[in-house]
Write a structure and sequence with these properties.
- Residues 53-119 form the HD domain.
- Pfam families: HD.
- The protein is mainly α.
- The chain has one domain (13-204): Hypothetical protein af1432.
- 51% of the residues lie in helices and 0% in strands.
- It has ten helices and no strands.
- Helix 5 runs antiparallel to helix 6 (105-118).
- The longest helix is centred in the first third of the chain and has 15 residues, at 14-28.
- Bound molecules: fe (ii) ion (2 copies).
- One fe (ii) ion binds at residues 80-81, 91-92, 114-115, 118.
């Protein structure tokens, strides 16, 4: 079989659905490569800043790496704005949806709500924006983590002079994360908090 014969889902057979499932599993194996390509596509988006969205993404991930953060944090930092391509009004939720099955809950929550936290840095300059939008999340277990994420990695990463590590440096980490078993409880670890900064780990990293 190289194609199913049904034209309505309700008419499909067990064999056809087994065939399609095998195809889908094969397709999911290449998610990391598609995401890396999407990051390259981000290079063309959002002009006006001193660096492109790809530059911003790589710089955020580089800062996470140099802060000694773990792989969940680094990959989340790298992909936090991936939603800018198709979801300009909820880019944070879009990115979080991609990450959710594969990273710690702490990281996907921070990505999901980072747009509200980022408003602290520019909301007061623009009509109709609430600089304190993040306050709606006050009291959440990961509130402080998002403050650090935005302060150290997101809002800081628009510097054309900063020495970014290349996207290729992060590619194996993206592959490792998206090769994980989706929704693995040992990965999601609801409620677990890992530090964004670890001086000892940072000091041991070569670059
Ligand atoms: Fe963002
Ligand atoms: Fe960002």
């Amino acid at each position: 079989m190289d194609k199913v014969s049904f034209t309505q889902m309700k008419d499909g057979t067990k064999e056809e659905y087994e065939f399609l499932t095998a195809h889908e599993i094969d397709h999911t194996k290449h998610t990391a490569d598609r995401l890396l390509q999407a990051l390259v596509d981000l290079d063309e988006s959002l002009s006006g800043y001193q660096i492109t969205r790809l530059g911003h993404s790589v710089q955020s991930a580089t800062r996470a790496y140099r802060d000694g953060a773990d792989i969940d944090w680094i990959v989340s930092a790298l992909l936090h704005d991936i939603g800018d391509i198709y979801a300009p009004y909820n880019h944070d939720e879009y990115a979080a949806t991609i990450l959710k099955p594969f990273v710690r809950e702490q990281c996907s929550w921070v990505v999901q709500t980072h747009g509200d936290f980022q408003m602290l840095y520019y909301g007061h300059h623009l009509e109709g924006f609430d600089q304190n939008k993040r306050e709606r999340h006050r009291g959440h277990a990961y509130f402080e983590d998002n403050e650090v994420f935005c302060e150290r990695w997101d809002q800081a990463s628009f510097d054309p002079k900063y020495k970014d590590l290349p996207l290729e440096f992060f590619a194996p980490m993206v592959r490792e994360v998206f090769d994980r078993t989706p929704y693995d409880p040992d990965v999601i670890r609801p409620g677990a908090r890992e530090p964004l900064q670890n001086a000892e780990v940072a000091a041991a990293r070569p670059e």
